[in-house]
Design a protein that fits this description.
Layout (H helix, E strand, L loop, with lengths): L2 E5 L8 H14 L3 E7 L11 E3 L5 H7 L7 E3 L12 E5 L7 H8 L3 H9 L8 E6 L5 H8 L3 E6 L3 H18 L12 E8 L3 H12 L9 E9 L2 H8 L4 H4 L10 H12 L6
Parallel strand pairs: 1-6, 1-7, 2-5, 2-6, 7-8, 8-9
Antiparallel strand pairs: 3-4, 4-5
Helix pairs in contact: 1-10, 4-5
The chain binds adenosine-5'-triphosphate (ATP) and magnesium ion.
Magnesium ion binds next to helix 1.
């Protein structure tokens, strides 16, 4: 069975695509067979890494026709410096700039739950399926959330982001809960303090978020111990189209390197994968 992990947030610009790209490549570096799915109408993940082969079909055919084979493009592992890896890093590209797919999902009776059933066809081919989503509520975001076993939500520790997490992302989960009756239960959500700087303010907000135990959720929602620091390495590695753990394998000083951060995150999120 492939683990399906959806990176989501109802706020834009919080780091979803950067996190999806880096976590996916880190897992591929561990030897995992990883499929990325760019479920954002703005195809940022689609151009994050150089591609080795480009399929002419993409997300639209995956969702509307259930085409799981002809929709997969491949990332060039050697040019992103994962050349030795026995893993795979493939991607279903985003091809819905006009939002036609969003409309289709909205007006198709099983629109929001189809992707979940379609993705099970990847179970024997991939170990991990990572979905990147748009930072706004919509039918495509719903479909991605409902197809995941686990949700990962980056939260920058600023007061507006923290409030948006409480209001927007938790609200989205509540709204989608009834879909369990249609065979699409909402998976547990892990909040990840993201782009942490070392100010007292960031630490206070992080503490507040952690203190809120999300008791009524009964373990459905927790904030991870791992945090992702704010460092230029994430932008620099994105510019060079390589994963942050290859760009910044080690670092001296108080801030965790890209490799250390990805290792800690994987260990906490997917403990069975971190060797
Ligand atoms: N750890 C980090 N430290 C500093 N900057 C970062 C970090 N991670 C990402 N960034 C930068 O933050 C910006 C937003 O990141 P990203 O595009 O991943 O967010 P997003 O949530 O996918 O946005 P959108 O909602 O528009 O899809 C980018 O410029 C990225 O380079
Ligand atoms: Mg994005």
């Amino acid at each position: 069975m492939a683990i399906k992990l959806c990176v989501c947030s109802t706020k834009g610009g919080v780091g979803k695509t950067t996190l999806t790209a880096n976590l996916g490549a880190y897992l591929a570096g561990l030897g995992q067979r990883v499929l990325l799915i760019d479920a954002d109408v703005q195809p940022t993940l689609s151009s994050y890494y150089p591609l080795a082969s480009i399929s002419d079909k993409a997300l639209t055919a995956l969702i509307t026709d259930g085409e799981t084979g002809s929709t997969v493009s491949t990332i060039d592992l050697s040019s992103i410096e994962l050349g030795e890896s026995e893993g795979a890093l493939d991607i279903v590209l985003s091809d819905d700039p006009d939002g036609a797919l969003q409309n289709w999902i909205l007006h198709t009776p099983d629109g929001r739950v189809r992707l979940r059933h379609i993705l099970s066809e990847y179970d024997d081919i991939y170990d991990v399926v990572l979905l990147d989503t748009q930072g706004a509520v919509g039918p495509l975001q719903d479909a991605a959330v409902l197809s995941a076993d686990l949700l990962l939500s980056p939260i920058p520790p600023e007061i507006l982001s923290a409030r948006e997490f409480a209001r927007g992302t938790l609200g989205m989960i509540d709204r989608l809960k009834p879909m369990a009756a249609l065979g699409a239960p909402v998976g547990p959500l892990r909040g990840l303090l993201y782009r942490m700087d070392r100010t007292a303010d960031a630490r206070t907000i992080a503490r507040e978020l952690r203190r809120e135990t999300y008791e009524p959720s009964k373990g459905q929602i927790t904030i991870l111990e791992t945090t992702v620091p704010a460092t230029v390495a994430y932008r620099e590695s994105a510019t060079r189209q390589i994963p942050v753990h290859c760009w910044e394998p080690r670092r001296n000083g108080p801030t965790a390197s890209g490799a250390e951060t990805m290792r800690a995150l994987t260990g906490e999120l997917l403990p069975h994968l971190e060797g």
